[in-house]
Amino acid sequence: MARDVLDTVVAAETPEGILLELRPAGLSVRFCAFLLDWLIRLVIAYAAAIATVLTGAFGVGFWLVFYFLLEWFYPVAFELGRSGATPGKSIVGIKVVMDNGLPVTPAASFTRNLLRFADFLPFMFGAAIVSMLLRRDGKRLGDLAAATLVVHRPQRAPKVKLEGVAPVTPAVALAAEDQAAIVALAARAPTLTAERLNELAALASAVSGDAGKAGPNVTRRVLGVAQWAMGRRA
Amino acid sequence: MTPLKFEALYQNEWQELEERLDVALKRKVADKTAQPLRGERIAALYRRACEHLALARARAYPAYLVDRLDRMTADAHQVIYQQRELGGAALRRLVARDFPRAVRASSGYVWLATALLAVPALVLGVLVYFRPGLILSVVDAAAAAQFEQMYSMSAESIGRTRDAGSDWTMFGFYIRNNVGIAFQCFASGLAAGLGSIFYLVYNGALFGAIAGYLTERGLGSTFYSFVVTHGAFELTAIALSGAAGLKLGHSLLAPGRRTRRQSLVHAARECVVIVYGVAAMLIVAAAVEAFWSSAAWVPSAVKFAVAGICWLVVFAYLALQGRHAG
User: Fold this and answer.
1) Are the beta carbons of B205 and B124 closer than 8 angstroms?
2) A179: which chain B residues are within 8 Å (Cβ-Cβ)?
3) In B, which residues are within 8 Å of A60 by CB distance?
């Protein structure tokens, strides 16, 4: 892997030769997830304590077992669910997968959560923090041993909406990547302000033969080239 | 081919695959009219979608198209290749075969862990027996007095302070405490095995010191009749968790012909089977300790007889179970 690239995307290859792109989650987002989970566990523990202590000695025994399960198996139970994430991870939009992009297995989830204790050493998750900061894939020790990866949930790319834009034949020959760039701009168009869209379209104005010009008309013509690249012809 | 034509051409296949995947991944409840889930159809559509994705990427089709194919193939990949390990059959296999086999496969570590637990116990036991004052260098005076009271002949329940809770409370306490220690003993082995060594030696030394002290005080019969039964499960389990931790640490220190990371992943996969078994043994130990060992009305002779059987069963299970099973 090239050292001078900032992008941390991990490519997992399937047996069919398709590359699945996994985007590892970094320290800060995982810290937020951890904090949320910690709060949720605290609330559950208190609620259970109030409910069970009232029921006497049997309740106390039950609470101790319950607390033990909450301490060690709260993440395992949720990671093996359909979302592959604890509630905290779900909220911040990350999940746990195997290195090859498959859902996390019970053994791997158990391993990574047992080794959380080793990640805690020497104090305050020191080992985990150092490991996550040093590694491009943001793994803590438990992830290394269990061969798991914490990744951002993929976000849907916006659909290209170009209704009512007249197709414009490009003024210059466009390579596939250039066409893709123009279409990507068109896909982003609804999320941009008109001024910013004009500014960006002006950068690409050469494609519609308007090099050096800017303004709403130029923008419409650049989007027209996108329409053409999508396959609509006048 | 333009993106729009490409999409129009294969739209139907993609939609069928997406619908089947939604049902397979239980995102959508299958209505009764839907076709049955057919694996071979999903596999065929998946291979087609893989081709389309490769084409779409090579031709730099717009992001939303590549994205849709990306998500479709990723979902299908999950449905087709995911491993299911949970369930009764897996549990039966674990008990009948995998756990004892994993223990035997790591027998070197098991013997080492046993020595790390037993040698400090013997040394401290003998030392404290001949020089009882030494107990104060292991625990403080109040704790020593408490141990004496817990195992005194007059105690209602052996092995507990007078104000400790009922059997059920103690059961919960033993689970939380002992299984937690076993998990820590295993996990801290990742630090080049040092953590496991610490937990084994510390627990062995503590146990030995208390045993030596109580024996010297003449409370040996109550103490040993208390610990001997659940010790079959508990001491063995602690040694096994330490062995798993040592194996984990060793895999990092001496990865052999693998990379350090591969070696760790490989060792962790074997160790986790041992830890499953350790957790189960400690739950048994907690139940025995809470409901049987502490019962003062059971004569010592009976306890020793039952304990003998327990030790025999545990050793026979670990040494023999699953040798020939397929």
Assistant:
1) yes
2) 60
3) 165, 168-169, 172
User: Judging by DSSP bridges, how do beta strands A148-152 and A19-22 pair with one another?
Assistant: unpaired
ipTM at complex level: 0.86
Helix (H, G, I), strand (E, B) or coil at A74: helix
- Whether the CB of A123 is below 8 Å from some CB of chain B: the reply is no
- Per residue in A151-163, is it b (16+ CB within 10 Å) or e — as a string? beebeebbebebe
Locate the chain A residue with the closest alpha carbon to B59.
Answer: A176
Higher pLDDT, B32 or A188: A188
Q: pLDDT at position A1, please?
A: 46
Q: Which chain B positions have a beta carbon within 8 Å of A187's beta carbon?
A: 62-64
d(CA B30, CA A170): 47
Interchain CB contact of A157 with B (< 8 Å): yes
Q: Which pLDDT does position B28 carry in this prediction? A: 64
Cβ contact (<8 Å) for A154 and B26?
A: no
Cβ distance of B3 and A231 shorter than 8 Å: yes
Contacting residues of A for B88, CB less than 8 Å apart = none
Beta bridge partner(s), residue A103? A97
pLDDT at B164 over 70: no
Phi (first) and psi of residue B154, to 5 degrees = -90, -5
pLDDT by residue (tens digit) across B61-84? 877 788 889 888 888 888 888 776
Q: Which residues of B234-257 are buried (b: 16+ CB within 10 A; e: fewer)?
A: bbbbbbbbbbbbbbbbbbbeebee
Q: Which of residues 37-66 of A touch B (CB under 8 A)?
A: 57-58, 60-65
3-state SS, one letter per residue, for B307-319: HHHHHHHHHHHHH
CA dist B26 → A147, B30, B56 (Å): 26, 8, 28
CB-CB under 8 Å, A18 with B170 = no
Cα-only R_g, chain A: 25
> DSSP states of A196-220 as a string?
HHHHHHHHTGGGGT-TT--SHHHHH
Rounded Cα distance, B208 and B221, in Å: 15
Give this prediction's pTM.
0.84
Q: In the predicted model, is pLDDT for residue A3 greater than 70?
A: no
